[in-house]
Amino acid sequence: MPQGFKFIVADDHPLFRGALKQAIGGIAALGIVLEAGDFDSARKIVAENEDADLILLDLSMPGASGLSGLLSLRNLYPDIPLVVVSARDDRETIRRALELGASGFISKSASMDEIRNTVRTVLAGGISAPENIDLGVEEDEAISDLILRLQSLTPQQAKVLGMLAEGLLNKQIAYQLNVSEATIKAHVSAVLQKLGVDSRTQAVIQLAKIGNQSAQSAGEV
User: Fold this and answer.
1) Which among 105, 55, 91, 71 is positioned nearest to 209, based on CA atoms?
2) Which end of the chain is more exposed for a tag (fewer CB within 10 A), N or C?
3) What is the widest separation between alpha-carbon atoms in the chain?
4) pLDDT at position 220 over 70
5) Nearest to residue 32, comparing CAs of 9, 61, 1?
6) CA angle, residues 202, 99, 145, in degrees to nearest 5
């Protein structure tokens, strides 16, 4: 395996970031590992390092609610593989993470070998989920419908939705994406139509539901 990978490790627990770095070091000892302890820092680091080879993202960091953080980064940076890292390793959370674009899932109870195997699989272009877990099918019809609607977004529409969730105005999104404001208005209209909502605020609320439902499925308040 080639050396020199660039990894972004986003987790609010320094000890677990250290464990992830140790596992990664066994794969590419000369790689660069950038760390973030909250979601805002993670987003800034990714924005400054779009050539990263892999993002390892904790679902429960400050600044993000469950799978909404995953959705935001996948929408904004679809070309960077992302592996979810979480203590919530129930089948609903794992299945929804993979359905919403994660390339892999690592439980915080995973061994060093399991972490390395997941990272190797994803770096090789594969998808990795914990073994011996039947992911089943989505039982919540509302969430199933929402996931299908989110999956129907084009990459550019998904990116615009992620920026709406950040609170950016149309002109700010247009500037960042280097397109006209009229183009962004068209994208926003398409996003609202596909999500079945009437306003930007409702679209962002729909996005947040993914994170909230994930927490509820794990019995969290």
Assistant:
1) 71
2) C
3) 50
4) no
5) 9
6) 45
AA letter at 73: L
168-171 long-range contacts, CB within 8 A, separation 24+: none
Token duo for residue 7: 């990894």
Provide the pLDDT confidence category of residue 75 given band limits of 50, 70 and 90: confident
User: Cα–Cα distance between 151 and 134 in angstroms, integer?
Assistant: 22
CB atoms within 10 A of CB 151: 12
146-198 pLDDT per residue, tens: 888 888 888 788 888 888 887 889 999 999 889 999 999 999 999 999 999 99
Distances (CA, A) of 130 to 98, 102, 105, 114, 143: 11, 13, 7, 8, 22
> In terms of Cα–Cα distance, which of 23, 16, 190 is closest to 123?
23
| C-alpha–C-alpha distance, residues 34 and 40, integer Å | 14
pLDDT of residue 65: 60
Distance CA 175, CA 145 (A): 32
Q: What is the pTM of this model?
A: 0.76
Report which of 57, 133, 124, 149 is spatially closest to residue 97, judged by C-alpha positions: 57
Count of beta carbons in the 10 Å neighbourhood of residue 175: 13
Beta-strand relationship, 104-107 and 54-58: unpaired
Per residue in 4-33, pLDDT (tens digit) is 889 999 999 998 899 888 888 877 555 789
Sign of the four-CA dihedral 94, 111, 115, 22: positive
Written as one letter, the residue type at 215 is A
